[in-house]
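Exam revision sheet. Question 4 asks you to relate a sequence to its structure. Input first:
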Amino acid sequence: MKPGLFQYVRADDVEKAVSLLQEFGDEAQLLAGGQSLVPAMALRMALPDVLIDISSIAEMRSITLTDDVLRIGAGCRYVDVLRSEDVARAAPMLVQAIPFIAHEAIRNRGTIGGSLAHADPASELPACMLALDAAIVLQSASGARTIAAEDFFLGTYSTALDEGEMIIAVEIPAIAVNQHHRFLEISRRSGDYAISGGAFVLEMDAGIITAARLAFFAVGDCAVLAGSEALLGKPLNAETIDQVAQRVGEEITFYGDLYNGIGAKRQITKTLTRRLLAQFPGMEL
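Answer key, structure tokens:
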């Protein structure tokens, strides 16, 4: 199939982009990397009357690390993030996660903002943003606002973006000395959608877990935090891990997919939780 007819306009800065969004309203869609939108248009699953190309906005392609906050422009491609020394230093989880995203051709074009705005429940990045306690910076013609990732993802392909808003950046607290990041997903083959995936952040003091954010994706209608409280105040040992895996299985509302039912998803996610927690330093065998 071929896309329907549409008008193409190009925005060279954020101000122009949000002005166009205000002008055309819900008739318009933004084009960044196009790795999700273009196939949807080809299948007539997306039928925008106006396509606003934001791929050349330079201010959305920068990565900066200041005052222990990592800011990644929404127009940064996966490959840009993967190659950034600032990202590797401040948010190593992203360096761990991005190689799992689809295939190299997709990573060379897909953008951070596009992935977050699309909000695919099987996408890696929303879970990473939850685990990293990120803030998502939004811009409209009336001004900017910042929203916690925890409040941004509402359901399958559903976010807190209001009409006329676009994502311009994400802001992530830099990893602390006592923090550790780990990422893992289970899929049938490399590049396939995950059956279950997790992005975990733990803070530890003298072998005791003082803070935890365990985020999961590809298991429900959107990325979700689960099981974190079951770790607090405990050492990381086999007993603790079993307790947390059980809690995760109880807290998540699982959705099946074409190949895996709810029961399979639950069991695989419990297994993933055990495997991922066992990777953290200080694990008592």
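Marking note for examiners. The chain has three domains: 7-53, 58-173, 181-277.
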